[in-house]
Amino acid sequence: MPDDIKLKKYEEVLMAAFDFDTADLAANERGKYSEHQIAALHHQRRRYVVTGAIMAGLMLLFLAFVVLTSSQLAALFNGVAVLGLLLAAFSTGQHVYRLNRDLQTPVSAVEGRIELDARSVENGGDYVVQVEKQKFKVRREAFFAFKNGDPYRLYYAPHSQTILSVDWLRDDQPFVDHDRLHLEEEPRPQVTRMAAGTQVSRAGAARR
């Protein structure tokens, strides 16, 4: 398969994994969000608000059930319910605040060689990628879309650390089989100095 077709297919893999297109990437290169990305951030914010409201409603229903069925445990579960409501409100507020800040600030970018944190995956944790000192939590399909050790430029929302688009900073020959090239290189003879001051290659010494 020609290299240009391979390149196009790999770029399509990245676009599918991070849900962006060439218009999104062009906007991010200018430090701006595309209309598609703005809509996605608004949708993510609404989802957090709805999730927080559902959790708060469930805690209130649980509290009402305990109060009606067991007066002795009402005080204990009342405290648990209030604590749960506070945690839900705090978590939701944090996410919504970060997304609001993202919508008010320019897109950030970082570039360098990607490092895939395999240890976190092996331990059942999040899928984490790192470029320079920046770490990002990503979905499984996004994690495996990267080529470990290759250079990339990541465009992301600075407060929620959401990756918006990815630019692969490929080499001139990204699909060349480096192992094959290494085998085809002519070996350079290693030189050993003899006591008399003459130089012979180790290959020649072996034949003797």
Report on this structure.
With 208 residues, this protein is an alpha+beta fold. The chain has 3 domains: 103 residues, OB fold (Dihydrolipoamide Acetyltransferase, E2P) (Beta Barrel), CATH 2.40.50; 73 residues; 27 residues, no CATH class. Helices cover 54% and strands 19% of the residues. The chain is built from 8 helices and 7 strands. Strands 3-2-1-4-5 form a 5-stranded antiparallel β-sheet. A two-stranded antiparallel ribbon has the order 6-7. It is elongated, with a radius of gyration of 28 Å. The two termini are 47 Å apart.
Short characterization:
The protein is of the alpha+beta class and 208 residues long. It is built from eight helices and seven strands. It has three domains: 1-28 and 106-180, OB fold (Dihydrolipoamide Acetyltransferase, E2P) (Beta Barrel), CATH 2.40.50; 33-105; 181-207, no CATH class.
Per-chain topology:
Layout: H1 3-18, H2 22-29, H3 35-69, H4 74-104, E1 108-116, H5 118-122, E2 127-131, E3 134-138, H6 140-143, E4 151-157, E5 162-168, H7 178-184, E6 191-193, E7 199-201, H8 202-207
Antiparallel strand pairs: 1-2, 1-4, 2-3, 4-5, 6-7
Helix pairs in contact: 3-4
